[in-house]
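hiii so um. not sure if this is the right channel but i have a protein structure encoded as tokens and i wanna go backwards to a sequence. like what aa goes where. can anyone help
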């Protein structure tokens, strides 16, 4: 039973990441257009005070691990 892992969907993962980022006045945003995706990746972080892009990611699973929003018994599954 220790091997059981729960999948976390994209919407919930984004909410968790944004709660952590809000402490530093930042927010995770999904790229909408193809030009944004080619320049910034699928996801990017903006400063809520300056509206400037501070970082970008092609995989929010990496950001989730960096911000420690996934518990040890959870994993991110894009298909969920």
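sure thing!! here u go:
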């Amino acid at each position: 039973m220790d091997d059981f892992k729960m999948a976390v969907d994209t919407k919930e993962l984004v909410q968790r990441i944004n709660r952590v980022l809000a402490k530093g006045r930042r927010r995770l945003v999904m790229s909408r257009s193809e030009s944004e995706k080619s320049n910034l990746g699928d996801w990017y972080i903006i400063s809520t005070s300056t509206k400037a892009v501070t970082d970008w990611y092609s995989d929010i699973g990496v950001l989730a691990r960096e911000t420690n929003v996934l518990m040890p018994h959870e994993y991110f599954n894009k298909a969920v």
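oh and The chain is about 35% helix and 25% strand.
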